Amino acid sequence: MSTNYRPDTICIQAGWKPGKGEPRVLPIYQSTTFKYENSDQMGRLFDLEDAGYFYTRLQNPTNDMVAAKITELEGGVAGMLTSSGQAANYYAVFNICEAGDHFICTNAIYGGTYNLFGTTMKKQGISCTFISPEASDGELEAAFLPNTKAVFAETVSNPSLVVLDIERFAGIAHRHGVPLIVDNTFPTPINCRPFAWGADIVTHSTTKYMDGHAMSVGGAIIDSGNFDWMAHKDKFPGLTTPDESYHGIIYAEKFGKMAYIQKATAQLMRDLGSIQSPQNAFLLNVGLETLHLRMPRHCENALKVAKYLQSHEKIAWVNYAGLEDNKYHALAEKYMPNGTCGVISFGLKGGRDISIQFMDKLKLAAIVTHVADARTCVLHPASHTHRQMTDEQLREAGVQPDLIRFSVGIEHAEDIIADLKQALATV
Prior knowledge:
- By secondary structure, this protein is α/β, with parallel strands linked by helices.
- It has helices spanning 7-13, 39-46, 61-74, 85-94, 111-123, 137-142, 166-175, 188-191, 237-240, 251-255, 259-272, 278-288, 291-310, 329-335, 352-360, 391-396, 413-424, and strands at 78-82, 102-106, 127-131, 148-154, 180-183, 201-205, 219-223, 315-319, 343-348, 366-367, 377-379, 404-407.
- The strands form 2 sheets. Strands 1-7-6-5-4-2-3 form a 7-stranded mixed β-sheet, sandwiched between helices.
- α1 runs antiparallel to α3 (61-74), α3 packs parallel to α12 and α13 runs parallel beside α17 (413-424).
- The N and C termini lie far apart (55 Å).
- The model has no long low-confidence stretch (mean pLDDT 94).
């Protein structure tokens, strides 16, 4: 249930509400199944007539309590956890798209998501048009087709760090009768709440800042409850016409504002099963309890590091929206006045090879296929996360060959800078 608490309090108090004699800390419901007294009780669950738990592949109490906390942080009406951020993005789109449908996505997104949307979902008969997040209104309007069902974007793109003009994209999506889905992984709801700017559905890789300690892989989908599916009935038959696999239930009529998440749970999770384990949900909840403390430190450290790099003679360029001369600074101030995230990108004079040599000399910062961790970490996307993309696709996604993604942790900023200094001295 939504409260008027501030995000700091929600991080601690939302979700699990223990009763008399119950554990103060969220329990791990490490059980595949749940017992009922008679066959009718179980049958009503399968008919979606009663709420409850019967098999963890669909829902689990530990997961639901954590999803409720993230939902409250985002200001939504319903949410669900998935096994990964990739699964969250897939479910978010697949929940309203089927074979023969089309959606629009900004091209400045995580490489794995780009491949999912542009290659794998194409094999399922769902097409995607990639467009620059900086495209004009006219260019974006021109990308819509009669069968377009959604627009997808990242709040702050990984790794190009483009800041999305959420309000503009939401307005255009709504003019065409489709929802805006936003991956809000990098800012988290501590720094940005996309629903306040017109976004309809939010996804997260909870593996990143929400977990914060590189311990558990997971994802989340949160629905604002604001998109009127019945007002666009012909576009979204999966929500507005009978689901014969559930005795003809019409989700939008039966569940109202909860329809989108109810369908994703009852249908997609039932059939595809990418549930987050209760153990991982428990660890995620521990991370969420300090999210409001960690995000300001990440942003504070990142700004110090970005300013240091910007002043160094061997650095060719630095991209961080917190810098006042950054091209995305005005948008960041509008949507994320308290900071964007702890991730910066930069390149060295001398290009790709020199950048890689420098990265290999870092000692405190670890080379890992991860980002948004309490520990400072570094990656060369063109060689790692985006290596399946062509040079043209890399450029379209804003990934330059020399781009180094530097995820600033919550260590002391001067120690992080000292590590950068010693590595730069070697190239």
